[in-house]
Design a protein that fits this description.
It is elongated and about 90 Å long. The protein is an alpha/beta fold and 596 residues long. The chain contains 25 helices and 19 strands. The N and C termini lie far apart (59 Å).
């Protein structure tokens, strides 16, 4: 049926779920956009919701229902549909059911509702999932899935709502125990079931021209749909779902591409996305999907697009090996004029040697003797805790010599990697500062993890090493709520050198560290509080609502690209010589089977 050009009355159901019962502001924006198009809006909270959030959202929705979190969103849909009875529901021209698995509206919902009102259909949605009779690449394990409207947003016309088939469908809906049943009992079958009964359906995004190229257009081509089709929403999972999924269907650009388009071209506040993702998702997933990597020029300064908010800078430099003081000075001189430099040393004897090396240094320098406890970490967290809040941005570095690794060039290469990617030259440092200015949710920049010589196994055994439980214990002490997962790598400065907004480490400094908490020399190679601090840094950053990222100078990125390609190519050829030539996931599985 088509809707007549009169005031169209709609009944809306919005299902919300958060494991901690926190409703972030993106819910407000979505509900306000939806409320403009529906006469009556029911908000259903699966599980719990904070009192203040319920009150806030209750000012937008006409009614709020908090229910036990059973049966996923489809069971909540059922409850919302049955709540006022089909006689009342049939008085509305359309019934809208949707959930909080998306951000929007990117464009006014009125555009979509106006377009669909002219369609002669009985039910409709935003996007459809195309039929999957088989997978030519062997990567999808769904079996057969018929073409169907995706259930995150569905609209039922009066012609369908009044039908006995529709009413019986919801009255007799089975108990749902898991996500697979939610898909199998509703999303995957609803469209075909009612289509077979003769009811007409359509989607706002006519992705027929994409059929054969994609199964799930909003997952695979979100920027295309948002830009070309004015799709009013983008799915949350696009920004954190398992990265192998992205690599199977694209070059990995989809999430970042749609985010950049929204930020650059639309009025939707991408800060709403950041705030929700950083609170709820693991940083390893976010880093890969959002590509938290900055490759900055060491030759050309970036133009600053807006007035600078970063006014006060500090360099905190710890020097233990006084014969490396001159080496450190070379990099310290790359900081901008006006930087305050704090140099920490373990004792008075080394202090004299360091002062000689820094004689005539052009910036303000304060020397601090901090003792020989806690390597470079204690001088930062204890020896300089009184000054960190005075600055908008701090660069923390230290001399680096690795005695346990031979030849010495291996350890020196790691030091080179850290210093070159943090303090290469003045132009590069200016670009780092500009990057913080341009990215208000960026909290920490660090060099990539080492991947040469004896450091290569870092990723093989996981960046956690033996330190997950120690770090988790520390995270509890710091009252962190963000996700730590032993199977997902921390985005951590494993060289203990980085740029950071001090307010992004507030929860770490709130601990009020003391020297007595630091291990005494000789320090174990792993599993000490120092190793835990090194890995908890980025989780503190995330806890404070910022994200950690890798940074590389253009000159070093040229090296790193070849390093990564060499490593991957050599491994791939060795593995495929044993397993045969095949796709990435198949190769992984084959190697795992060889190992077992």
């Amino acid at each position: 049926m088509k809707l007549e050009k009169k005031e169209i009355r709609r009944y809306g159901v919005y299902v919300f779920y958060d494991k901690n019962g926190i409703a972030d502001e993106y819910n407000d924006v979505f509900l306000r956009g939806l409320k403009e198009e529906v006469a009556h809006l029911l908000l259903i909270c699966n599980g719990k919701i904070r009192t203040e959030d319920r009150e806030r959202l209750g000012k937008i929705a006409d009614e709020v229902l908090v229910r036990e979190n059973i049966g996923y969103d489809v069971t909540a849909y059922r409850e919302g549909i049955l709540k006022h009875g089909f006689e009342t529901l049939s008085e509305y021209d359309e019934v809208v059911i949707c959930n909080d698995t998306m951000y929007g509206p990117l464009y006014p919902f009125s555009e979509m509702f106006r377009t669909m009102a002219s369609k002669d259909v009985d039910f409709w949605g935003i996007t459809s999932f195309h039929e999957v009779p088989f997978d030519p690449f062997g990567t999808v394990s769904y079996g057969y899935l018929p073409t169907h409207i995706q259930s995150f947003f569905m609209v039922f016309r009066q012609s369908l709502v009044k039908s006995q088939a529709f009413q019986d469908y919801w009255k007799n809906f089975p108990v749902v125990h898991n996500y697979e049943e939610a898909i199998g009992f509703h999303e995957a079958i609803f469209t075909k079931k009612f289509s077979d009964l003769g009811y007409q359906w359509e989607t706002y995004i006519d992705s027929g021209d994409l059929e054969g190229y994609t199964y799930d257009p909003l997952r695979d081509f979100p920027a295309y749909l948002v830009e070309e089709y004015r799709c009013p929403v983008v799915k949350k999972r696009s920004f954190y779902h398992e990265y192998g999924e992205a690599m199977e269907r694209s070059g990995g650009e989809a999430s970042r591409e749609v985010f950049d388009y929204i930020e650059r071209e639309l009025s939707y506040d991408t800060g709403l996305i950041w705030k929700n993702l950083l609170r709820t998702q693991n940083q390893a997933d976010l880093k890969k999907r959002m590509h938290w990597n900055f490759v900055l020029s060491s030759k050309l300064r970036k133009p600053l697009k807006k007035a600078g908010t970063i006014q006060k800078l500090a360099l905190i430099l710890h020097i233990y090996y006084d014969d490396l003081a001159q080496y450190c000075r070379k990099y310290a001189e790359q900081m901008p004029q006006g930087t305050d430099v704090f140099i920490t040393v373990p004792d008075e004897e080394k202090l004299e040697h360091v002062k000689q090396a820094f004689e005539g240094f052009p910036y303000s320098v304060e020397y601090r003797v901090t003792g020989n406890l806690g390597r470079d970490v204690a001088p930062f967290l204890v020896g300089c805790k009184d000054i960190v809040d005075n600055y908008d941005l701090i660069c923390k570095v230290h001399d680096k010599r690795v005695y346990q690794v031979r030849p010495m060039s291996l350890g020196q290469s790691w030091a080179y990697k850290c210093f070159e990617n943090l303090l290469k030259n003045k132009t590069y440092v200016d670009n780092i500062i500009c990057t913080f200015e341009e990215n208000p949710y960026l909290g920490m920049l660090m060099p990539p993890v080492p991947n040469h010589g004896p450091y290569y196994p870092t990723t093989g055994k996981g960046e956690w090493g033996e330190n997950f439980e120690t770090t988790k214990k520390l995270a509890r002490e710091l009252k962190l709520h963000v996700d730590l997962d032993p199977d997902k790598e921390p985005v951590a400065p494993l060289g203990s050198m980085f740029w950071v907004r001090p307010k992004a480490l507030k929860c770490l400094f709130d601990h009020n560290w003391q020297y007595e908490e630091m291990p005494k020399e000789p320090i174990a190679d792993d599993n000490t509080v120092l190793h835990a601090i090194e890995r908890v840094y980025p989780f503190c950053v995330q806890e404070e609502g910022y994200y950690p990222a890798w940074v590389m100078a253009d000159s070093y990125a040229e090296i790193e690209v070849d390093n990564f390609r060499f490593i991957n190519r050599e491994l791939e050829q060795a593995e495929m010589s044993k397993t045969g030539v095949q796709g990435f996931r198949e190769l992984l599985q084959a190697v795992r089977e060889l190992r077992s």
